[in-house]
Amino acid sequence: MKFIDILYLLLSYTNADNVKTKQPHFKAVALLNCVGVFIYFLIPSFLAKAIYTLILLAVEFFFKETRGIIFSFIPIIIWVLLFSSAKDIPMDWRRPIDVDTLYNLENKLGLISFYFYKNENVFLDLLAWLPYGIVHYIMPVIVGIYLLLYYKPGFTSAYLFFFGTMNTLGVITQLCWPTAPPWYYKKYDTTPATYEMHGDPAGLQRIDDLFHINFYTTTFTGNPLPWGAWPSLHSGFAVYSALFLSYIYPKYCPLFFMYVAWIWWATMYLGHHYFVDLLGGFVYAGVCFLGAIVYLKIKKPYHKDYNELRAIMVYQSKCEHEVFEIISHKNNNTKLGTYLSDSVNKINNNNNNDNDNDNDNDPDNDDNNKITIITESNTKVEDGNSLISDTNVDNEINKRGSMTTQFHNNGPDLDKLGKISTINQTCLTDPPSSVTDIDITDAKII
């Protein structure tokens, strides 16, 4: 795969791949962002950083290449900026730190988090460190890349946009209601906290001691938002990803929520969150997940298998109530150089085998199964009892209003392919450069 293909793949979920300019402004955009981020970290004032960020985002919207990306990433950008700039907020703007409300709520629940917090050993330290200190930070990246590679752009856009929304709402809540985590109560009881105090690695200190490093100690003592116990965004990360993946793969739902249970235990064992914090993260994740589902219902993106099947169109004839399926660009020897997915080929092969069996049993039944395969070359493709030439394509389009293939009405795999209905005819008369350029977002479910 060429570099430009990879670049357009990364941009596809934001519709930035629809840019038609002959000279895309990729270099200008890259330079703008590199310089812009560098200048951001040189600005000392929180208010100045906020104004500068808004100006930079506004400039980004002038470039078609980044307009869609910025829109999808706006919540994530706001979240990162709010979090990293929390230490720069003027003291007069900051709320007093609440050190006892969460503990009192936890006490009513039986001090669940303290039960895990007091049982310590090296094995449990490592078992808790893995999800809390490693997987937590890479999980959203892995899910986002997976969706980008294997699903329609709308899935990636929905996941990232509402993931950022969840974190932005969480940080805003933490800024408006700063709360002390369990490690603070263990060290200082309910003594009033001040913003001069630093964060604490709590149980992760034992990981630093075990590996003779100072990573988590440095990271947590320099945390710009140490008073953000509620809601737990560790819980939010895990629950949101689990809900989203469960929506795509329902049968693996228990597996995804086993990870949620794992990281919930880890956060309490390491002393960073109360159980009520985890419930708060669950609520925030659930609300944002519902927003993502609404977005997907409106956008109606399909699995990337359907992206490969752009040339497959199923519609029901108003007069004869016959189902037609359209397959084009299937000849693997053409200059397209692309292949349908294994799952699609399997379905097609099953239908071809069924057609052969029907023809053997009833040799006179030639009209039950006819497949018209349109290729890019002038060759003829034989399927069953028919030979179709490319020269007949235009006549076929004019005759039926589209290219069609008639399958046996009782075909066993018809339902598997019969997921897509009318697609804009222009995409058939003006084929793209590759099968993966297909967009069937406007297809309707039968």
UniProtKB/TrEMBL annotation:
Spell out the Acidic residues composition-biased ranges. Answer: 355-366
SMART domains the record matches: acidPPc
Which GO terms of type biological process are on file? Answer: mannosyl diphosphorylinositol ceramide metabolic process; sphingolipid biosynthetic process
Predominantly, its location class is membrane
Q: Does the keyword Transmembrane helix apply?
A: yes
Q: Where in the cell is it found?
A: Membrane
State the superkingdom.
Answer: Eukaryota
- Residue limits of the Phosphatidic acid phosphatase type 2/haloperoxidase domain? 156-293
InterPro entries noted in UniProt: Aur1/Ipt1, IPC_Synthase-Related, PAP2/HPO, PAP2/HPO_sf
Q: Which residues cross the membrane?
A: 68-86, 129-151, 158-180, 281-298
Which protein is depicted? Answer: PAP2-domain-containing protein
